[in-house]
Amino acid sequence: MTHGQVWPKPVIQNSYNVYLEFEQENFYFNSTGYSCDLLHEAFKRYKGLLFLKAKKTSQWLRRLPKNKIAGTLEKLNVKLLSPCEDYPSLNMDEKYEIKIRKSGGTLMAKSIWGILRGLESFSQLIIFEKYCLTFVIRCTSITDYPKFRHRGLLLDTSRHYLPVQTIISMLDAMSYSKLNVFHWHIIDDNSFPYQSKAFPSLSDKGAYGQSAIYSTNDIKLVIEHARQRGIRVIPEIDSPGHTLSWGLGGIPGLLTQCSDTDPNYFGPIDPTVDENYSFIKTLLTEVNELFRDQYLHLGGDEVNMNCWNNSKKLQTFMTLNNISNVEGLEDYYFKHIFNITRELKTVPIVWEELFSDNIHLDHNVVVQIWKPNNFSSLVQEVIDSGYAVLISSCWYLNYIKYGSDWSSFYNCDLSDIVDRNNLLLGGEACVWGEFVDETNVLPLSWPRASAVAEVLWSQVTNYTEARLRLEEHTCRMKRRGVPAQPANGPGFCTY
Predict the structure, then answer these.
(1) Model confidence over 339-355: pLDDT tens digits?
(2) Class of residue 429 by CB neighbours under 10 A (exposed 0-12, middle 13-18, buried 19+)
(3) H/E stretch holding 145
(4) How far is 172 from 241, CA to CA, in rounded Å?
(5) 289 assigned to active site
(6) Under a CB-based contact definition with an 8 Å cutoff, are residues 435 and 480 in contact?
(7) How many angstroms from the chain centroid is the CA of residue 33?
(8) Which of 181, 195, 186, 199 is nearest to 160 (CA)?
(9) Rounded to the nearest 10 degrees, how much is the dihedral formed by the CA atoms of 102, 103, 107, 108?
């Protein structure tokens, strides 16, 4: 493996064959620019991460020659050039510069988010040299910034409820690879763990149990933990499909009765009931105020059209309203939903089905592509139609196979996509929860999500070169408490 190399790979890095020692007791971060609570909390966090030693110490780096140690690094001067922003956003500035010289070390960025990314890179430059019994850092200069603005990870907490502490651990791991969006697929057919203040019966009756509910305080804790690490939290309230758990909450007429002969066979939300839109508006208003991000994921995938086709009530409604097919009924539904998001001044994200079904989309909609077949042509079509786009097609982490499979995520080729108007925002790795719970979500996700992170951050990717850095990064995550699975087969974390 490499030693003291950064993940994801920086845009520009020049390293020199000269090292500085650290004295753990004397090293400190020195703020020389703007300051805020986010900055000082980051100093405390990274002071702890800088000096972690592995438990297994049977093999280490070769001893550095005495003439390579040029002095001691006593402090890192951290210069924040602008006042701190309260919350991360799509257009946050994550650029940073690091200079480690014999004369000292500096980290500089215009925004607090760039400082956070720079602190992570600085922490990765440090190695423990056993024979000298000291931490050392190589003299280096880095100029770095991300290729894409949206670098996310979707986590499904409906199929299996994930404890808050597990989500916290995922956020920590995301920050170690500079991912900046937590897409929280919080509810689905299987359970409704989101505790709504306006409609508490949704979780009381739709969750797996009282111990499998996310309270307002739980969600605020997740959002704050993410904010401290420069990670946005975007909730997904998927409808009109994937809503069977909603039907347990006692909202009259919410779901479509799919069969006149079977009163217990329900499907998507009934788009013909006006009261359903009032209910959804209240729910989305509450969610939007709690989560605070400008973006809100509306879902829209895998709607059971057969149910709507089989409903005599809906067919009659379609005839009376000159709606010729169920896609027209879906269009009718989302016309109301987009009216709500416009009132809330939030930017909607939807799955690709809405674009493919020719639903009338708001001009500011973001389309997320998830189906694997020929996805780049669909991405190009969405961009050419003037809509922003996210890609997930390459990056379903819950699809696993025996062996080292991170290369399939790393080698996802986006080079043939022509993006003249900066509409390709980035992408997301997805961890769907059918066979994922708190026992396996972390090793299943890491370091595989790190491969996605480098594709979305780095300007140039090279699998052969990345392989050794990922081996080090995997050991680094393990040392920090993330149970990352082996990246490349047989090996041993030597520090």
Answers:
(1) 999 999 999 999 999 99
(2) buried
(3) none
(4) 32
(5) no
(6) no
(7) 29
(8) 186
(9) -130
How many other β-carbons are positioned within 10 Å of the β-carbon of residue 275? Answer: 12
CA pair distance 284, 296, nearest whole angstrom: 9
Residue indicated by tokens 């895998």:
302
Of 134, 95, 115, the closest CA to residue 10 belongs to: 95
Q: CA 487 → CA 154, 159, 214, 442, distances in Å?
A: 21, 27, 33, 13
Contact between residue 392 and residue 350 where contact means Cβ atoms under 8 Å apart: no
Q: What is the helix (H) or strand (E) element at residue 55, kind and residue range?
A: none
Nearest-Å Rg of the Cα atoms of the chain is 25
Q: Spot the catalytic one: 23, 224, 302, 465.
A: 302
Closest CA to 407 of 459, 453, 467, 465: 467
If phi over 0 gives left and psi between -120 and 50 gives alpha, with beta otherwise, what is residue 104? Answer: left
Q: Which two tokens stand for residue 276?
A: 């359903």
pLDDT in tens, 205-253: 999 999 999 999 999 999 999 999 999 999 999 999 999 999 999 999 9
439-468 pLDDT tens trace: 999 999 999 999 999 999 999 999 999 999
Give me the phi and psi of 369, to 5 degrees please.
-95, 125
Up-side HSE of residue 85: CA atoms within 13 Å toward CB? Answer: 20
| Threshold 0.90, pTM exceeds | yes
Q: What is residue 172's three-state secondary structure? A: helix
350, 226, 459, 372 alpha-carbon torsion, rounded to 10°: -30
With beta carbons less than 8 A apart as the criterion, state whether 356 and 369 touch. Answer: no
Of all helices (H) and strands (E), which one includes residue 92? none
